[in-house]
Design a protein that fits this description.
Elements (H helix, E strand, L loop, with lengths): L1 E3 L6 E5 L11 E6 L5 E5 L7 E2 L3 E5 L13 E6 L5 E9 L9 E3 L6 E3 L1
Parallel strand pairs: 1-8
Antiparallel strand pairs: 2-6, 3-4, 3-7, 5-6, 7-8, 9-10
């Protein structure tokens, strides 16, 4: 899971370990888990979606209208056969910044994420 700063959108940097150098990624599918919108970030034609050694960046400009701090994104880097070679979940660190994200448990007096 990558915890990303919402204020840095529309570009997201994801730690990436390529296990097979013979099978490079050609891009990444990004899915908004709440709306089920999908967008393909092509590493060749989108200059802001690039694979580097150790991480890759994706530009979600086409999805950003329906992304907020509570959104969860599924990112799947794919090879030339459209097979996923790396997957990651992206959440935003800003989603847990207020007391309204918590609910008191009457039995223990503690807090639980809802």
């Amino acid at each position: 899971m990558t915890i990303f700063d919402y204020d840095n959108l529309p570009t997201i940097s994801i730690p990436y370990i390529l296990r097979d150098v013979e099978n490079p990624a050609i891009g990444a599918w990004v899915t908004n888990q709440e709306t089920k919108e999908k967008f393909f970030c092509d590493a060749v034609t989108l200059p802001t979606s690039v694979f580097y050694d150790g991480y890759f960046t994706i530009d979600i400009t086409d999805l950003v209208a329906n992304v907020n701090v509570n959104t969860t994104l599924l990112v799947s880097a794919i090879d030339s056969n459209n097979l996923p070679i790396y997957r990651d979940i992206v959440v935003f660190s800003n989603r847990l910044d207020t007391d309204s994200d918590y609910e008191q448990n009457d039995n223990s007096g503690g807090y639980a994420f809802v």
